[in-house]
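A student in our group prepared the protein record below, which I am reviewing. I have pasted the whole thing underneath without changing anything:
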Amino acid sequence: MKKLILASNNQGKLAEFQSLFDKANLGISIIPQGELGITDADETGLSFIENAIIKARHASRESGLPALADDSGLCVPVLGNMPGIYSARFSGNHGDDNANNAKLLTELAPFRNGTPIVGKFICVLALVRHADDPLPMIAQGQWVGEILDAPRGENGFGYDPLFYVPSLDSSSAELDKTTKNALSHRGQALDKLIAHLKQGEFDRL
């Protein structure tokens, strides 16, 4: 069983990653960085790609193992694509989902004119073979929907209660895990990454 460090301590993300990797049956054991006492990296990049690579290199350097990092967030075009890379700390409190959702609703209030407000969930995955890997493996996913004017649903995390999927007449937080993983930005990115891994990319790590 090969080992791969996951550069995240977000329990929602961990559950999604583990579910999709188990389904792919790659023979890869995912170890959350927190189990090894690895703290979060400082996200000093100016893009999802930069931050994903920063986090992957940090986890690999601290563990001595290959590492996979995710950087994801919600981009809202009418807000200049904010909160973007600052999604988890939009309210000023990192990881405070309720506060972040409340701030988003406040920021969008002036734009509510009866027409849907578009939102895009973005996910970038970066996998490094070692901390100084000159060619990280990158996979990206994008999920387009609308932003509700009030939270709906109890599942998921982050901005899921505000992200509306018109084709299903549901928020992301109202979807079951299987449906969400099949549609989501993270599911899309992981599918692309897993396709590379199935071709033996991990064997060369």
